[in-house]
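COMPLEX REQUEST
Ligand: 2-phosphoglycolic acid
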Amino acid sequence: MRRRMYAGNWKMNFLPEDAAKNAAEFRNKIQTMNAAEIVLCVPYVSLKPVMNALEGSVIKVGAQNMHYEEKGAFTGEISGEMLKAMGVTHVLIGHSERRQYFGETDESVNLKVLKALELDITPILCVGESQEQRNLNITNEVLRLQVNHALQKVYTKDMERVVIAYEPIWAIGTGEVAEPKDAEKACKYIRTVIKNKYGDNIANNTTILYGGSVDENNASDLFAELNIDGGLVGGASMKPSFSKLINNGIRASTTKGDDYY
Ligand code: PGA
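STATUS: Structure written out below.
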């Protein structure tokens, strides 16, 4: 049994007041839904306003990054402890934009995953190949290395709390969504990597998301795939139609049977 999840990644968008307004509007459309875990990952300065806007609803609030040290001389950084103190429940780790523009490495990703788990914050670990790696046909190799590196020293008992998001870099923000069969293949492969490391049971219980140009039109086909348990959504999560995207995804995934709780 594994969880379905839909996470919005608002990236560096919305002033706090607008973020709160957007979250409140989203909440009105989503309130009664409990077929999937729903998370909005918002900029640090919008965490509190969005939490206030969502108070009492099923929607969780996540951050988009965190430092792995508790405190210290790391100007401009935010620690997991600080997020925890604010009531943050989820955090994106290793998003490709952080790897690409901010020097995030497999090592720092690993340290952040471990720290998030220690603090009982759900890490949403992002992995995915670049266009160049895709052309070279080394997607599986890249995914295997990224996943194994990120999960070093993550014990079996903690693994159930790790969510993995497969986000091919070439599909992020480009409008070029992966073919459902290709996304399924990659997510299935990630599950095999988990299985080799942690066994069948953990692999079957791990939530694996797809991200990269998901919208309300392609959601049904993507989320009907067996090994895709939901989505990490950027651009489309900032639109009023995000709730429709989630509905479409959930409706499509219920055809997969009762592997979920
Ligand atoms: P996108 O972004 O949906 O805009 O492609 C996804 C992400 O960056 O998580």
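REMARKS: The first helix runs from residue 16 to 30. The mean pLDDT is 95.
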